[in-house]
Amino acid sequence: MKTKVVAFRVTEEQYVALQFAAQQRLMKLAEFVDDALYPVKLQAFEAMKKEQKRLEAKAKRDAKKAAGNGVQ
Predict the structure, then answer these.
(1) Cα torsion angle, 8, 12, 30, 36, sign
(2) What is the pLDDT of residues 49-67, one digit of tens each?
(3) How many CA atoms lie within 13 A of 70 on its CB side?
(4) What are the C-alpha distances in Å from 26 to residues 21, 30, 35, 37, 40?
């Protein structure tokens, strides 16, 4: 899967604080931010899967209903 870039702005003070926190954990800044966002990414992925499943079930119900209406 091809990766995508997500960018956002922070103040210089926030950047320095993030850099400091990453250095304390002996990580690169990008790794630190990625790790910090992991719970959010996981929750978003689970919500997306749940919505896809719901839409698939709705499509099945609609198809079944349409087939039933055509038989009458």
Answers:
(1) negative
(2) 999 999 999 999 999 988 8
(3) 6
(4) 9, 12, 13, 18, 22
